[in-house]
Structure formats: C-alpha cells, structure tokens
Amino acid sequence: MEKERETLQAWRERIGQELDRVMAFWMEHSHDQEHGGFFTCLGQDGQMYDDLKYVWLQGRQVWMYCRLYRKVERFRRPELLDAARAGGEFLLRSARVAPPEKKCAFVLTRAGQPGKVQRTIFSECFYTLAMDELARVTGDARYQSEAVEMMEQIVRWVREDPLGLGRPRLPGAPEAEPMAVPMMLLALVEQLTEAREELARRYTELGDWCAQRILQHVQRGGQAVLENVSEDGKELSGCLGRHQNPGHALEAGWFLLRHAIRKGDPDLRAYVIDKFLLLPFRAGWDPEHGGLFYFQDANNLCPTQLEWAMKLWWPHCEAMIAFLLGYSESGDPALLHLFYQVAEYTFRQFRDPEHGEWFGYLNREGTVALTIKGGPFKGCFHVPRCLAMCEELLDALLSRRAPPALAARLGAE
Predict the structure, then answer these.
(1) C-alpha distances in angstroms, 306 versus 242, 296, 309, 365, 388?
(2) E strands, 276-388, where?
(3) Which H helix or E strand runs over 114?
(4) pLDDT per position as a tens digit, 2-37
(5) Which of 41, 45, 86, 295 could form a disulfide with 36 if both were Cys (CB 3.0 to 4.6 A apart)?
(6) Alpha-carbon Rg for the chain in angstroms
C-alpha cells in the first residue's frame, strides 16, 4: 500500500509539473494580442507557421483556460482570464457565418473572416463549451445565453433536422450514425447542467438518449466497439461498418463513466469499464512497439486510412483519463496498471523536453513523424485536459490513502 501511494504521488508531481510546462507553451506562443483568439498552427519551438484560426480549436482553448482558472488555484491568473475573454469575444464577433441558423465556420482568417464551413456540428459544440465555461468564470449573461441558444440549435440538427446542416440524403448513402455525435452531445449536457437545476431537468432525457446511442456501438455480441452503426443500432457493411477507433472508444468510455456516476448506476459503470475501456485497449494496443493504433478494422483486414498505424497524442490522453477514472471508481488494480502503462509510453514518446508541449504525430515505431505542436486538429485541449483531470483524480486518490489527519487537511485545501 505504501509503495502504491509513493507511485501515485510520483505521478501526481510529474503530471502537475507537465501541466505547468504545457500551459506555459500556449500562453507564451499562441495569444493574438491584435485580434483576440489564438494561434494554433505552431512549430516545435512555438513559431507560428500559419495564422488561420480554426473555430473548434478557438473554442477548446477558451474552455481550457476558463476551466483551469475555475478549478485549479495556481491558474487563477488575470492574464489567463483576459486571454480567454478575448478569445470568447473573437468567437462572438466572427464564428457564426449564418446567424439565423447559428452555423459556425470551421476556419477563419486571423482577423475573423470565414474561410470554410463544414456540414457537421463540431465547431458549434466547442463554441458552446467555450461560451458556457466563460459565463461561469465571468458571470456575463451574454455568454450563458449564447451557449444555451446554440445548444438548442445543435439538438434540433441532431434529433429533428439533420438536413439543416446542408447534407442532402443521397440514395446511395448509408444511414449511419458516427459515435462522435452522441458523444459530443453528452459532453455538452454535462457542461451545461453542472450546478444548474433547471438545465439539468431540461436535459436529463437528452443525456440518457446520448448514452443509449453510444452504447449501441457495442456490436458483435459485445466483443467490439464500432465507430459507425446504422441509425437503428445495427452493424453496417463494408469498411465503414468495420471501422474502429480505439482512442474514440476510450474517450466515450470516460464520458459514459461520468454519466454513470451522475446517475448513480453501478451496473452501467461496470459495463462501460468492460466494453469501452478494456475491449478497445486489448484490441488497440500495439504489442510490438507499444502505443495505441489510430484506426483498426474489426475483421483484422488492412484499414484503408493511410495513417492507421500511426500513434497520435489524443487517444493516449483519453486512455490515461479513462483508466485512472475507472480505477478511481472501481478500485480494480488492473485499471491502475493500464494507466501506468499508457502514461509511461505517452510521457516517453510524445513529450518534448526541450521546447515544451507534446508532439502529436508519431509513426508506428514511436518516432516523431511531424514536429508541429499544433495545427488544424491539435491545439490547447487534449493534453492539458488530460493532465488537469489526472491531477485532480490523483489528488483525490492520495487523499483517500492518507492517514486520517492528513486526509482531513488535504480535503480542506
């Protein structure tokens, strides 16, 4: 027990120090002092190589800054809140390209002119997360109103009017549901309902609906989590139906775990650990080189995606959260061992000890394939979210294992 506590403490210190280094990188290199918002196309040393601004990454960084400001005492700094507010105002001015429909651009110029729109909900989802968290730390009702209005629009697109996104139903297109859609909606439900009774009542049914839609991605007699299923929860034919994304399944796992905790449902918790944590890890871990494969084929055929065997930063971040949360809730030492296994690989392979932050893209053998620290898909989100959540979970675990007097002191801090 004492050795386990020492290991947990060592990881707590290591993760806390890494969170500080990662945030220092973004605070030094990403702030646009002229237009507001953030530069995310950054090279290894933080040098900007493109000034395009991707709306979902703008929203993620606003959310991340606000969440750290609200939850972590050492990040309660005026400059962090000022940058988040400037990012939020940039989004309010520029993100929406068709205000009556509330559609957001996917990418903007540095000054905020729209450059591209995607027919998905993801820019809008991260816009909503940003506005809600910004409302919580500033008390500004404009942000809260914007978050709720956008949430209502997203729900209409998903459940009532998918054609409103501009995607016509073509006769040869499969009626498929990607797991990302109910996953993101479940994340929004958690965000908007925290400590808000009225919104919690409004979105209870939606949260349960999202959970059930995610659970129907467990297929093949409970032996595989598939990324895409039919709208009525059946396996699809071809590559689309066989497609697996281990990192996404693990992320869905910790989303569902938190849902089960809120619902007080131990049976759901156990099911999620088995199907969304252990299954994807067993199938997705590379036994030869370590790390999680990016994509897989459920029939063990060669995936068609060129990057299928690469090791990306974000699946490993999600795995760290999932296994540590799973251990925290179940006490199963096997989950703690898996956390250590993933964390050791992740810190060894992705972390940049010279310039800070993490590389995002490794080849199968674990060497750096792209030296960039940010781009259209990687920004100030998955790495600091993982580190902050793991730090919080480790603090709670250490508090449980401390002697009574120390535990009382830790609980008061």
Answers:
(1) 16, 11, 8, 15, 32
(2) 296-297, 311-312, 361-362, 368-370
(3) strand 114-116
(4) 899 999 999 999 999 999 999 999 999 999 999 999
(5) 86
(6) 21
